[in-house]
Amino acid sequence: MPEINHSTYIKAPVEKVYQTLTSAEGWNAWFTDNTMLEMDYKGNGEIILRWENFGSDQVDIEDGGKILEVVSNKRFVFQWSPGEQPSTVRFELEPYREGTAVTLYETGYTNSEKDLRACIQCAVGWGEALTLLKVYLEHGIVYKEDL
């Protein structure tokens, strides 16, 4: 089955990267418009990713699912459903030089036409998203400012 895999280096401490990935405010700064993230102290919870007036069609999009695993300053794993069935997104964080090596994996796509289309779109999208995360954490530039 298709799998997505992207890596980047971010010149920011692991703790700062982890905090960004595990808070709604963090997601909204680099990726979404109105994300909700609820987690208990064990890491159980749900993430709802929201985009408002997205793309050339100006559509509102909502997706998300269960938070499957949270390991402080090391890993954040959740499900969402850009294709036919839920896929699993895993962020792995490792200290590296003066910052953090971030690796993203997404698995769970089938070989159906809809899943393959979603996988291709997400493969491109996650590459762009990690660039947005890097720019936000290194330079403070946010995804979308109020106009």
Automatic annotation (TrEMBL):
Residues 11-138 form the Activator of Hsp90 ATPase homologue 1/2-like C-terminal domain. Coiled coil: none annotated. Gene3D superfamilies: 3.30.530.20. It comes from the Bacteria. Belongs to the AHA1 family. This is Activator of Hsp90 ATPase homologue 1/2-like C-terminal domain-containing protein.
